[in-house]
Amino acid sequence: MQAVRKTSSWAYWCQKRLLSTSSAVNGRRSREPWDKRFPVRAEDVSPDKTGGSKEMAKALPEDIVAPTGIYHRLTGEYIHVPEMVPEFVVPDLTGFELKPYVSYRAKEINQAPLTPKDVFNSVYAETVEDEYRRGTIKVDGESIQLSDGRVLNAKDFVVDKDEEAQ
């Protein structure tokens, strides 16, 4: 008897699960098949996606603009909120030479650490050489007189031990 009741209750629950008279959207707030917070875009229904087609992509707007206000609950009046208007702060990049993106596929660059000599050679060496040739920098033994009148002594500068060996 126990076995019959278990099987009959199982059959009863199976039939109850399969037969439903409620609406297909039971428990949803709207009958729309998508979430209103995330509108469907043309690229979501493009022909190369599963279930997409050219007609669906054409029917949707090209640009989706976020609202800049709210609707009042009682009156239904649209209230513009200035804080919801996007503000783009873009720096002036005229003369900026770097690229905006570095791919992860870029080859790794192995470079020795910069030394003070490398920095001097890349930034100042050419200017110092030009001024020396024009005669604005004068060298007298161990002292160097710059174009602005300052005098530098060679004893005050630290020299790498590797350079002395060369």
Quick rundown:
This protein has helices spanning 2-18, 54-59, 116-123, 125-134, 161-165; strands at 69-71, 78-80, 138-140, 143-145, 151-153. With 166 residues, it is of the alpha+beta class.
Describe this structure in words.
The protein is an alpha+beta fold. Among the domains are: 32-82, no CATH class; 116-157, no CATH class. 28% of the residues lie in helices and 9% in strands. It is built from five helices and five strands. Strands 3-4-5 form a three-stranded antiparallel sheet, with no helix packed on it. Strand 3 and strand 4 (143-145) form a beta hairpin. The radius of gyration is 38 Å and the shape is elongated. This is 39S ribosomal protein L41, mitochondrial.
Which descriptors apply to this entry?
166 residues; alpha+beta; two-stranded antiparallel sheet; 5 helices; 5 strands; mitochondrion; Ribosomal_mL41; ribonucleoprotein
